[in-house]
User: Fold DUF1232 domain-containing protein from Taklimakanibacter albus.
Amino acid sequence: MVLTRSNEQTVRSGFWPKLGKVAASIPFAEDAVAAYYCAFDRATPLKAKGILFGALAYFVMPIDAIPDFVLGLGFTDDMAVLLAAIGMIRAHLKPVHYDRARATLERLKHGDTPAD
Assistant:
């Protein structure tokens, strides 16, 4: 529970700034944003939230297995962790999360801020 709260705070403070910097260069941006919305959805069970917050915190953290600046490989570990987490909680990731993700990414492309 403490780790989940710590990861939640990391995600709250770092997700949008990180995504804003790299959204155009990562092929899993829609999945990441959908996972974000699922993690903060009150209907998502605590266990699924914990898994998602862990994966999203890994994405946000500047230190990971393959540094993000490594050309061509930098986000492969982030993608693997996120997609593994999504695979574990797939039943809780709803179409509404993906709809919000697509709308948010569209806003970001136009320089607007995301809607939490």
